[in-house]
Amino acid sequence: MVARSYDAQEAFGQDWRGLCMGLAYVNDHAVWASEGNSGRVSLFDWSAARRRSIDLNQGEFKDSYTGDLALDAERNILYVVDQANFRVAVVDLKTRAVIASVRVGRLPFALALSPDRNTLYVTNVGTFEYKMIPKVDPAQARSTGLSFPGFGFPSAEALAGVERPTEKGNVQVPGLGDPNARESNSLCVVDVSSPTAAKVKTFIRTGVPIGRNGEGGSSPSGVVATADRVFISNSGNDSITVIDAKSNAVTGEIPIRIPGLESLRGVLPVGMAYHEKAGWLLVAEAGINAIAVIDVKAGHVIGHLPAGWFPTRVALDGDTVFVANAKGNGTGPNGYSGETGSVYLNRVRQGSLSIYPLPAAGDLANNTAFVMEANGFTPRQAPPPMPEGIRHVILIVKGGRAYDEVLGDEIESPAGRPRLRGRPQKTSQPEGRGGDPESSRHRRNMELQRQFLRRFRHERGRPSLVGRSLSECVDRDLADGGV
Fold first, then answer.
1. Any residues with CB less than 8 A from the CB of 148 and at least 6 apart, and which?
2. 431 CB-side CA count, 13 A
3. pTM for the whole thing?
């Protein structure tokens, strides 16, 4: 099964758009999967010919974007994150009907059910709830819209709103409100003891608030619930918040730091799994391609385990560890030569699954040393001096596009691979030319000394160049075919 491919369209219908980040296994041969921007969740059964779908775009709700899933198998209830509408939809799988809808906070992201299935925990990674500017007419955007942003952030105008002029008169631009509101960067606790009457019990803010030694908010991206505690991973703060399941009070914060680099952030903790017998919390460290091992009783990290590229989820089956790596082993060579209309654009982005036994405590030191070395965290000798005569090395990145992305259609160029051309457009150029005549003109007038055969990742070449991830939400959704 391949998502968002021409092959999949034939198998699943022309309305098939792809997979997002939600999966809920029913048994060994069936799984519920969220489809992201189609607003649907679908049941894929290995033994069935077609998928069965449930559309969340019902009644007052439109433009739904389905995300994480939590399955209550005993009551046959599926909880579905609708990121676009800031809610969780409650679905009765017997009737395939949405029986309740709960507004939970700004950009809900991850779900976890309590062991007794009476409480649903929802993380909110968003900071603001953006509102439309009043009186804007899309057909007359130039005259009814703003010619310049209404305000900067942080500012008093951003907090409360401000009046700004347009060609058609002044309008009141809505403010963004308090970035530390309870719906922002928080955990929403939902009472689902009666799924048809699901209701919010409380919001719990996690991590460091914006404006207090924090930049951008905590972005709580993962949640695991045990009988007495709830663990939340704060990807923006590189920390784990511990909450008492009975009182809903924060009882501790566990930092995840790299020795010698304690002032820096970027570990990006996301998904988690708890091994009760060992008392270990396993945390996917998407930013360093590893799994942190936290001794919950001691309250600190005791080691790291290697993983693939950008691990986002961890699961346990007894003493076996399963790690979902959103970017797998990278895109690899992009000279795929399949038939026209194939799944090439989707095939270059494949994740991977790491499976290994839970290591013994005595093995953590060697695994940790490997992770530190692989990430360049261990001290190394100074590099040799530059060769004499070379004073500067300049690397020019053209808008995030690699050489073959821009010039792949230049038959006489060193690239000369039209199939590698990214997003070809119709132009007035001669046959064989792509949608960037200016780049082609420069190519013909200049000698390019190097070609980089690399598949583009949207318009994000510059962050990729320095190994920086925008956020766990953006990277997971992009890797899964969303946004």
1. none
2. 0
3. 0.81
